[in-house]
Amino acid sequence: MTDRALRILIATDTFAPDVNGAAKFTTRLAARLTRRGHEVHVVASSLGRGRHGTRVEEHDGQRFTVHRLRSILYPGHEWLRFAEPWRMYSNAASLLDALRPDVVHFQSHLVLGRAFSTEANKRGIRVVGTNHLMFENVMDHSNLPRAIHGTAVDIAWRDAASVFGRCDVVTTPTRRSADYLEQKTGLTGVHAISCGLPGDEYSPNPERQRGRIVFVGRVTSEKRLETLVRAVARLPQDLDWHLDIVGGGDQIDELGALARELSAADRVTLTGFVSDEELRDRLRHAEVFAMPSTAELQSIATMEAMATGLPVVAADAMALPHLVRDGENGWLHRPDDPQDLAEKLERILRLSDEEYAVFQAHSLQMVAPHDIETTITAYERLYRGEDIVDPDTRVELHD
Asked: Edge-to-edge strand order for the sheet containing 312-315?
């Protein structure tokens, strides 16, 4: 296989400045591919009315072309926009004819992935599809009656199977999420490739930050943050704990009210949206990271915490057991069980300094194989049509 630079088109329904795992991964992917000398074109939704068009944008220190398509705001949602569905096939056809990319890599099959995979197939262009979505995770934002959520999820997975079936290669961030995707769609051969992490952007704090618990992510129902607030309210007072919930979302007011109801308002801070710099600072000033979500396909936020040297307490669900080993770098708690979560947090907060240092070291060891350069190399090879062995992220821990 030649190592010539590729022309890569990345189609995504969510992209910077959106704040979520898929957008963060896609932004890093485009920037790192550009840094390696490839010609990258990102196709994404416009940021609002009248803000469509093609521009060179700078993200993560790299400049590449972004084609912003006319978009609509999803009903009842503060920021989620989708490219206008009635234009998506014509937009895909015209861009593919103009750019003639070597490969199309879509990050969501809902709108743009659907259109670009269809039009790429007609033109014999290689298609790579990545799934970042669990439909069970988004039903609360679907505007559908709860009574039909189960039926809607089944229909959605059948639809996903038809779109991903057009791909030459399908990927998702972890082996567990790959197995889940295969189970739900009937696909086979799904690759597990970590979203990766630029580890050099994170560093442990040499001083232990006692009592500071932190969560980073979207403040929405699927993250199960009510469980976390109820858990910390059960912690013994002598621990002098404080919880920082870092991120924006539609549950901020609700969680603030819950903290007041539980007489914990003075110990719970809801920051709202913060910059990447402040996010890293909040991690460095924490003692333990909490992730109560039950529907993480990988959890970039948890990996960021581990790269900062934090022990982790996380729900024993979906991909989180890939990142947390009981008694080694943290603890897994029973999903939606605030008492069990509180007990596991207390275990971390009561560790001796020597024990805590071991947990820190294990988090750093476990996140090391998720280096983003390994991820970029894997995708380069898939783009070129090479067979790959999925990167191995398993780690044998040592003290």
From this structure: 268-272, 242-246, 212-216, 288-291, 312-315, 330-333
CA 197 – CA 294 distance, rounded (Å): 22
Name residue, tokens 């057009």.
166
**Rama region for 315: left / alpha / beta (φ>0; ψ in -120 to 50; rest):** beta
Q: What is the pTM of this model?
A: 0.90
DSSP string for 268-325: EEEEES--HHHHHHHHHT-SEEEE--S--SS-HHHHHHHHTT--EEEESSTTGGGT--
Helix (H, G, I), strand (E, B) or coil at 57: strand
- Write the pLDDT tens digit of every residue in 62-72: 999 999 999 99
Confidence of residue 1 (pLDDT cuts 50, 70, 90): very low
Contact 116, 43 (CB under 8 A): yes
Q: Mean per-residue pLDDT for 261-290?
A: 95
Alpha carbon distance, N-terminus to C-terminus of the chain: 41
Confidence label for 258 from pLDDT (cuts 50, 70 and 90): very high
> Where does 36-148 have alpha helices with state H?
88-99, 112-123, 135-138
> In 3-state terms, the chain is what percent helix, strand and coil (to 5)?
45, 20, 35
| Greatest Cα-to-Cα distance within the chain, rounded to the nearest angstrom | 66
Helices (H), 141-264: 149-164, 175-185, 225-232, 252-261
pLDDT at site 200 = 85
Check if the beta carbon of residue 249 is closer than 8 Å to that of residue 293. Answer: no
Peptide bond into 206 cis (omega under 30): no
| Sign for the pseudo-dihedral over CA of 308, 59, 91, 77 | positive
Give the mean pLDDT of the chain.
92
Domains, the chain? 7-196+371-383 (3.40.50.2000), 199-370 (3.40.50.2000)
